[in-house]
Amino acid sequence: MKRASERAAAGAKRAAAATASATKRAAAAARAKYDKMREGKKAPATAPTPYVNQNGNRIYKSNNGAVFTKNVEGNRNYAPVAVGIKEPNGNVMPLKVNNKKTVPLNMRPSNNNKNLDNNNMTKNL
Length: 125
What we know:
By secondary structure, the chain is α+β, with helices and mostly antiparallel strands. It contains one helix and six strands. The chain has one domain. β1 and β2 form a beta hairpin. The chain is 28% helix and 19% strand. Strands 4-3-2-1-5-6 form a six-stranded antiparallel β-sheet, covered by helices on one side. It is elongated.
């Protein structure tokens, strides 16, 4: 009985470690993609970043470096806060406290955001 519970606990730890490393890999890949985005005259006028806000709206970057989201009416919000990373398959991976430092400063969640690990960004948007 004791060995079975030890095996189950070890399996749970491995699963948690795999999830944490997948989150860290996704965060690092998103930041690398953001850093490769061009700025200046040869850049597109607006380009989508891999980040989304709490409403699931994609965060865009202009060729001048400004970040913004577009709401339903088409208006722009120039103070977005990233709470998730949208993967190429359409799934949104929530940001965690341990990988929030990979998000660029102009859209990084604040230090007092205690609910970063408990947000509802696990569903497809």
